[in-house]
């Protein structure tokens, strides 16, 4: 069964937690005792309706404040597919959480309050969707009941979002749904109160969205996590390289190259789930055996000789800064690319995005918490990567403070 990964974003009180709770309720993904607990919690709050947001705001601080402050992964299923929702906080001080939640998603649900329309956070959410190259964005215009179920309001917000998407260069497919998450209008069932809307419900959109399969079409990138040497009588000469195939396919008998050495060999055998197979595809955890003994260790990468990637110690990347301590040129960090770690230095800051105007600010001297912009980095050793546009599975990295061990930035490679 297909699994669709979705990220959500919305500003405070846009109804994101309620929308997710409604999806869980309408797909019958809530146990009886959990629903009874939510009903009891709603009564304690003095509400005359079941507050479905209580299903997702799991932390005590979230329940008390009525906001989402941490990323949670929520699972539900329909007869046709399974879903994983990364429920990310949408307000500005948690931009880093939202990037984390959306980084592995194929679709993005952005909520907009029908009374407020496009606000600063909407610009930030759509900019992050562009940054992460998310292929489909569902713009859910919520609380239509508080806007009189007005088609004019809906069309006005849709036009504003389309203009914004064009301005920032968002290439995602945009789908718009007018909704009342609290009552379930156009979430799983069509709304009788908005008969002017003849499009699909949000759940219908999700059910019909094709799950992305193009990882197999990308160049093969296999970072080695572990070298297997049993040293047993039965497997005396066995040397296997284990890890997760991040992208592409590998086949028995295929010629491959080990990086950084550049030496080549042929795949003698492939194993998946302890079974020998002829071919493996992206996302599988595998072990491969070569017909030659090469100097390969953890953090090295195996690629096919017809789609090798060149190493570079200089790169340009877009950074999303996630630390309270400012980023300045000359700062040094550990750059973690997959399982490979190398020391890196910020050689220059090229620009910073002004989220209010969506313009690049030149000549900035530092990044603060939640800033996004382009930087130049130098690494102590060559990095064998692709640009994020070419291969997202091999074109992203994180920066780690060597002393505190904090993750301080997420990076997306622009050029090598």
Task: Describe the fold and architecture.
With 416 residues, the chain is of the alpha+beta class. It folds into three domains: 210 residues, Rossmann fold, CATH 3.40.50.300; 92 residues, Elongation Factor Tu (Ef-tu), domain 3, CATH 2.40.30; 105 residues, Translation factors (Elongation Factor Tu (Ef-tu), domain 3, Beta Barrel). It has seven helices and 23 strands. Strands 7, 8, 9, 11, 12, 13, 15 and 16 form an eight-stranded antiparallel β-sheet that branches. The protein has a six-stranded mixed β-sheet with strand order 2-3-1-4-5-6, sandwiched between helices. Strand 11 and strand 12 form a beta hairpin. The two termini are 38 Å apart. About 3% of the residues have low confidence.
Features:
6-stranded mixed β-sheet; 416 residues; Elongation Factor Tu (Ef-tu), domain 3; Rossmann fold; globular; 8-stranded antiparallel β-sheet; single chain; alpha+beta; 3 domains
